[in-house]
Design brief:
With 127 residues, the chain is of the alpha+beta class. It contains three helices and five strands, in the order ααβαββββ. The structure holds zinc ion. The site of zinc ion has 8 residues, from loops. The site of zinc ion (ZN) has 8 residues, from loops.
Amino acid sequence: MEKQQTAVCQVCGTALAGRVDKRFCSDQCRAQRHNLKRKADVGESMILDINRILRKNRSILKVASPLGKTTTRKEYLVMQGFDFNHFTHQYKTQKGNTYSFCYDFGYLLLAEEKVLIVNWQSYMAPK
Ligand SMILES: [Zn+2]
């Protein structure tokens, strides 16, 4: 696995290909960023920042576990820039394990600094 961080759009969090100095995925996102800065709307820019973190988290989980369940080292996710403080929701199993999700990808912290990555399943939806 490569150790480089995933470069993402500063507005929407889409993974960026190509030039390392690129900061936005599209002219739309660039314009949106400029508009927000001008308005200095703290709440809106916070939403964007958190969305960006969540999207980045999701893409890191997706790359680490493209199919079904995968166990990896916590350190590996941290190296990719994963932020364990941000997730969209949680799911608690009958055994009492709490999975934290970033949209459709979730993780469970295991012993010995390991992480189990799972995909969202329909039975996890609130009843
Ligand atoms: Zn973008």
